[in-house]
Amino acid sequence: MNLELFIPELSLAAFAIVVILLDLFTRRKGLLVAVSLAGLVVSAGFTIAMWGGGSQAIFNNMLAVDNFALFFKLLFLGIAALVILASVDYVSKFARFRGEYYALVLLSTLGMMLMAATAELIAIYIALELTSISLYILAGFLKDPKSTEASLKYLLLGAVASAVLLYGMALVFGFTGETQLGEIARTIQAMPPQALLASPALILGIVLLVAGFGFKIAAVPFHMWVPDVYEGAPTPITAYLSVGSKAAGFAIILRVFYSAFGLPEWLSLDWGLIFAVLSAIGMTLGNVVAISQTNIKRMLGYSSIAQAGYLMVGLATVGLSPAADILGRSGLLFFLASYALTNLGAFIAIIAISGKLNSDLIDHYSGMGKRAPLLALALTLCLISLIGLPPAAGFMAKFYIFSGAVHHGLLWLVIIAVINSVISAYYYLRVVKVMWLGQPASAEKVPSSPALRVALSISCLGVLLLGVIPGYIMKLAEVAARMFIF
User: Fold this and answer.
1) Apex CA 77: angle with CA 115 and CA 156, to 5°?
2) How many angstroms separate the CA atoms of 42 and 13, rounded?
3) What is the 3 state secondary structure string of the chain?
């Protein structure tokens, strides 16, 4: 069974249980943070030890242990660690439930790790629901009207998306008689094109899979939950949703569509064009609607929809490129890593600033450059990265993903993406203008905990390093992109 290959997930689950039990017996709540971070570090250590070990499968080929899965596992563990560090002050708002909060973050991270590794339809659904249920609860942790509404809306729409996804999986299973991705691929490739075209079941199943997974990555037209959930959820969880859930969604989309539907070529071209159209619509709608937002969390919610559009440029490239070409896949992986650091940095700065102001309105950030220059500088760097300007990571991320798209005949999509990047500069730089040129409402400084400052420093340093010396992470992304199990 090779159970040792499952140790990263088992260790994280064990630490989540320890956090819950420890919460019952200790009043030193800081210990919960230490144990949670220790669980993430231990799991990351086991994951790193497996890097470069070749592609293997466990549990009757339900889970893949390859560099693609390991890359995403490390990404999810890093995201969770930064979110926990940024939450140290914030959790005072729900002091009675700190243990549950940290445990749910660990369990949702466990679900994301499984999503990146699953190579079988039933396992994919179970991993996705483990992640989703944890996030539904976390979104409502503040227990105020907005937070409760966010959690309920996320739950109801998430349930509909899960049903659509499950129906798509059922159609694929009914057509192929298989649930394992590699077997689905072999069954489809063994059929003559006439048989595939004669039955609409497979195409409809693929369309429903796009819809179900589209909800998880906040792709238009499955984005309707994003603004309200981002605004109502606790800010650290909003940050976690914006990067963790999105990265997990793209990881499973890449594995499912590349491994199961990568051949024949005409099928790959079809779903590649679907993602290209969704990309163009998503980035345009997200950026245009973000312009009118006055709440910074809602603004970043629509920004997240636009960023999903940019990321789907990479998915479209994967669909339209030959199987041996890793340019689209590696560019997408690098974009996800840089976006995670960038958006986390922005939200961590917002946690500190909004916590002091007790407001998320952009106008209330006026003069923040004078009251909290380091926080304002960090937020400015992250917003510049989201635009895609050098020397931040966003510039190199867009360079890699757009280069791959142009190389494979998607110049029209890149032109739309570049125009949208210019549009996005308006609302991102509006926040920068308010912070640095506006007059502060008071001269009172904005305090932040050492843990939050550490998380913010790591995020901003990562944004700069990936923008100036992206080669190392890009090489890791290229190695990960080669390691699919079929």
Assistant:
1) 50
2) 11
3) CCHHHHHHHHHHHHHHHHHHHHHHHCCCCHHHHHHHHHHHHHHHHHHHHHCCCCCEEECCCCEEECHHHHHHHHHHHHHHHHHHHHCCCHHHHHHHHHHHHHHHHHHHHHHHHHHHHECEHHHHHHHHHHHHHHHHHHHCCCCCHHHHHHHHHHHHHHHHHHHHHHHHHHHHHHHHCCCEHHHHHHHHHHCCHHHHHHCCHHHHHHHHHHHHHHHHCCCCCCCCCHHHHHHHCCHHHHHHHHHHHHHHHHHHHHHHHHHHHCCCHHHHHHHHHHHHHHHHHHHHHHHHHHCCCCEHHHHHHHHHHHHHHHHHHHHHHHHHCCCCCCHHHHHHHHHHHHHHHHHHHHHHHHHHHHHHHCCCEHHHHCCHHHHCHHHHHHHHHHHHHHHCCCCCHHHHHHHHHHHHHHHCCCHHHHHHHHHHHHHHHHHHHHHHHHHHHCCCCCCCCCCCCHHHHHHHHHHHHHHHHHHHCCHHHHHHHHHHHCCCCC
Condensed to tens digits (0 to 9), the pLDDT of residues 301-359 reads 999 999 999 999 999 998 887 766 777 788 899 999 999 999 999 999 999 998 888 88
pLDDT of residue 484: 57
The pLDDT tens digits of the residues spanning 259-304 come to: 888 878 888 888 999 999 999 999 999 999 999 999 999 999 999 9
Q: Which of 258, 256, 158 lies closest to 212, judged by CA?
A: 158
List the beta bridge partners of residue 63: 58, 118
Q: Is the dihedral of CA 35, 38, 44, 49 positive or negative?
A: negative
How far is Cα of residue 26 from the mean position of the Cα atoms in its chain?
Answer: 33
Residue 218's region, left for phi above 0, alpha for psi from -120 to 50, else beta, is: left
Residue 440 backbone phi and psi in degrees, to 5: -70, 145
- What are the boundaries of each domain within the chain? 3-481
Amino acid in position 279: S
User: Between the CA of residue 293 and those of 169, 297, 302, 309, 386, what are the distances in Å?
Assistant: 37, 9, 9, 19, 17
Q: How far apart are CA 38 and CA 409, in angstroms?
A: 46
- Residue pair 255/68 in contact (Cβ under 8 Å)? The answer is yes
Mean pLDDT lowest among 121-125, 222-226, 260-264: 260-264
Residue 24, φ and ψ in degrees, nearest 5: -80, -25
| pTM of the predicted model as reported, rounded to 2 decimal places | 0.94
The residue with greater pLDDT, 405 or 96, is 405
For residues 217 and 308, the answer to whether their CB atoms sit within 8 Å is yes
Which pLDDT score is estimated for 485?
45
Cβ atoms of 192 and 266 closer than 8 Å = no
